[in-house]
Each structure stands twice: as structure tokens, then as C-alpha cells.
Design a protein that fits this description.
This protein is of the alpha/beta class. The protein is built from 13 helices and 19 strands. The protein folds into two domains: 173 residues, Rossmann fold (3-Layer(aba) Sandwich), CATH 3.40.50; 221 residues, Rossmann fold (3-Layer(aba) Sandwich), CATH 3.40.50.10300.
Length: 413
């Protein structure tokens, strides 16, 4: 595949070298077109060495090849990273002052912008209008990541990690020419892993959750263009690149993090395995096993119902706001009172969430495995949806269903 990689004039340009490596190692032919300003951060020699192709930012180089026309026509994909506020404005207004902006005007294939700038610049009304203009014309514009920026400030505006940009670019190419990232502009909060409730400094009450499904959901949401916040309890796998990670340990810590994160989230997915109970008292010292003492009695108390609380908080929101979508997970086993789906439907009724993803769990099912099989139940009463395969496959189905639900309601007022 022939890729034009446009590099904007921001300090995040150094991270684009890793993105270029990902493209070339995947076998793609990449032509780098840096802006003049970007060469103050990374020189053309670096781009030529990594891409194996000559690099220019002038329409007057190799005039006989008519590069300002040829590059856009021949490119199967154009990726702009970092897409600075200045570059987004030039692209939205159709300026053609250098080789890169000329190439964008001549583009016939998909175009992906990966913005990076200071928070105030990203949130400025002019930048937001330029982003909406580009999206309305069929370009894909990723949401920037949140985190440390230049200097001491932090917030949304970081360049997404190279892996996230690469995944989004590949997803874009696999779609149609009018492909849009379905969760672009959305903020998605996902809880993952298993909570641990301390008994003493050594022991805890926990569960078998590995966090694999939650991490796969975070990747799928990120690749769909969302800004992703991952509330990470104990996990056996590392969190993915390009998402904000909020570490938690106990159910109470998860509750605090979830309520805070829900305030600016369009979607909340509670996929973590949250302990229903916790010890009523936590010993400051290790509980010893001694022959001269009776067996200890551990009193448990209920943990708060975080999912139900999130639903109540959402339902009490001010009128005029688009309804936040809340997705719960149910790890169920059948018993004498009913099968898995019977228990799940009752849980959906109690919790009041919009979607409930149901797992049939056991010691050798779901937990820690790389595959999964789920049924998605909807509060609306629509037909149950089944999804199975790898946890990546299941996550893609869940995020697709969420995207469809979001698109069926009006945007935030």
C-alpha cells in the first residue's frame, strides 16, 4: 500500500518516527511529506533513512514529476501526524501553500488526521469547527489522548500513541472510502480486571478476572476513534497504548473513580469483575494461624452497587442532555432458580442499564481465556445478540452495537 505520511510542526513529531516504522515493517511504501516547521523538530534525513524514500516539502522539487498532483492521486492512504491546529485549519479551508496541503487537496483515498496540540487549542471553537468540517467531508479525525503536555500542563491534546494511529489507519483502509470512525468525538470509560478486597496486609478476597476482555474493549473503542479512559483493577495483561489509565484496587476505589469518570463520558462500560462483598474489618497486621486459637470468623459486608448507582446518576441528569449509554456485564452460572439468561434478564431489570453483556462463567470458562462467548441483552427489549470468538472479536461486536445505539439518539444539546 502506498501511504503519504504528513508530519505537522509540533513537538510530537518525534513520535511519528515510530509510526513510520510500524508502516514500513508492515510492508507499506511510505512517502513522508513534512511541513517546513516540522523539520525544526525532526530533520528530513531521519525521514529518508526510515522510509527509504526521498523527502521534500516543496512543490518546486522534482517538478517534472508534478509531485503536488501525483502524491495525492497515487496514495492509497494519507495520514497526518501530528495534525496541529494550524494544519487542521489549512486543511479545512483548502489552503495549498506547500507540498503537504497541495497533496491533501489532491487526495482521492482515505485521509486520517491525528491531532496534537495544547488543550486550550484543541478545545477552541475554531479548532472544533475545523474538525467537524473535515469529518463532514469524509476525513477521519482521531481524538487526541489525554495526559502530560509540553511544560507542566496536562489534559486532552497529546498525540495518540503510534500503535493507536496505526490501528486506526488500518481500520480506515479496510472500510469504504467514506468510512468514519464511529466513536470519533466520544469519550468512553471502561472498567477492567478484578477488584481485590484486603483482609490483612497479605491476604485479600479476589476473583479470577484477568482483565483481557476489558483491555480488548479499550482497544476496540480506541480504534473506533473514542477517547478512552480505562479504570484498571488487577489485570494479568498490560493496558493498551493510547488510553488514559486510572488504577484502582478495591470496589470502593472503583466506585469513586467510576462516578468521577462518568461526568464527562458518553459511554460507561462496567466490564470489571467487582467483588460483591468485602471484609467488615481489615487487620493492620497479618492474621496468624495458631494452634491455641479458634478458627477466625470473617464477617463480610456488601459493596455498593456501582452499576445501579451510575444509572441513577445518569437518570437524574439535567433535561436536554443526550442520554449517556451505560453497559453492564453479568458473569452468571445457572442454578435451581433458573438458567444463565433468566438470571441475566432479572439483573438487567434491577440495574436499569441500557445493555447487559452476559457471560456463562466457570473455572475453565471466560476468566483468563483468550476466547469468549456472550449474549447482549438490551433494556429496550430488542432481540438478544450473540457474539463469540476471540475476546478481540467479541469486543468489536460490543463496540459496534454501542455505536449503533449512540447513533440512534440525538447528540448532546
Amino acid at each position: 500500500m502506498r501511504i503519504v505520511l504528513g508530519v505537522g510542526g509540533g513537538i510530537a513529531a518525534y513520535k511519528v518516527a515510530s509510526l513510520l516504522r510500524l508502516f514500513t515493517e508492515a510492508g507499506h511504501n511510505v512517502t513522508v511529506v513534512p511541513t517546513e516547521a516540522s523539520t525544526r523538530f525532526v530533520g528530513t534525513a531521519t525521514w529518508e533513512a526510515l522510509s527509504g524514500n526521498p523527502v521534500s516539502n516543496s512543490v518546486f522539487d522534482d517538478v517534472h514529476q508534478v509531485n503536488h498532483v501525483r502524491l495525492g492521486h497515487e496514495a492509497d492512504l494519507i495520514v497526518i501526524a501530528p495534525a496541529t491546529a494550524d494544519l487542521l485549519a489549512k486543511a479545512a479551508t483548502g489552503q495549498a501553500g506547500d507540498l503537504l496541503t497541495n497533496t491533501l487537496l489532491m487526495a482521492r483515498g482515505p485521509v486520517l488526521f491525528a491531532p496534537a496540540m495544547h488543550t486550550e487549542m484543541w478545545q477552541h471553537a475554531a479548532t472544533r469547527a475545523n474538525v467537524e468540517t473535515l469529518r463532514s467531508r469524509g476525513a477521519a479525525v482521531l481524538e487526541p489522548a489525554s495526559g502530560r503536555l509540553t511544560g507542566a500542563d496536562s489534559g486532552p491534546g497529546r498525540l495518540p500513541e503510534p500503535e493507536a494511529i496505526f490501528d486506526a489507519a488500518m481500520a480506515l483502509v479496510q472500510g469504504q472510502s467514506d468510512f468514519q470512525l464511529p466513536l470519533a468525538g466520544r469519550t468512553v470509560t471502561i472498567s477492567a480486571g478484578g477488584t481485590r478486597e484486603p483482609l490483612d496486609p497479605v491476604r485479600f478476597l479476589g476473583n479470577r478476572s484477568s482483565g483481557k476482555q476489558g483491555v480488548a474493549l479499550a482497544v476496540a473503542a480506541r480504534n473506533a476513534g473514542a477517547t478512552v479512559r480505562l479504570l484498571a483493577a488487577h489485570m494479568d495483561v498490560p493496558p493498551p497504548a493510547g488510553v488514559e489509565v486510572v488504577p484502582v484496587e478495591t470496589a470502593l476505589q472503583l466506585r469513586e473513580a467510576a462516578l468521577a469518570a462518568a461526568a464527562d463520558s458518553d459511554v460507561v462500560i462496567m466490564s470489571a469483575a467487582v467483588a460483591d462483598f468485602r471484609p467488615a474489618a481489615v487487620s493492620d497486621t497479618k492474621i496468624k494461624k495458631r494452634d491455641d486459637r479458634d478458627d477466625p470468623v470473617i464477617t463480610l459486608v456488601r459493596n455498593p452497587d456501582i452499576l445501579h448507582e451510575l444509572v441513577e446518576l445518569r437518570n437524574s441528569a439535567a433535561p436536554g442532555r443526550r442520554q449517556q449509554l451505560i453497559v453492564g456485564f453479568a458473569a452468571e452460572t445457572g442454578d435451581n432458580d433458573g438458567d444463565v439468561l433468566a438470571h441475566a434478564r432479572a439483573k438487567l431489570q434491577r440495574k436499569g442499564c441500557d445493555l447487559l453483556v452476559v457471560n456463562h462463567v466457570g473455572t475453565d470458562k471466560v476468566f483468563g481465556q483468550d476466547t469468549n462467548s456472550v449474549v447482549i441483552l438490551a433494556r429496550s427489549g430488542s432481540e438478544p445478540q450473540e457474539a463469540s470468538g476471540t475476546k478481540t472479536d467479541v469486543s468489536a461486536a460490543i463496540i459496534s452495537r454501542i455505536s449503533g445505539e449512540l447513533n440512534s439518539v440525538s447528540p448532546r444539546a
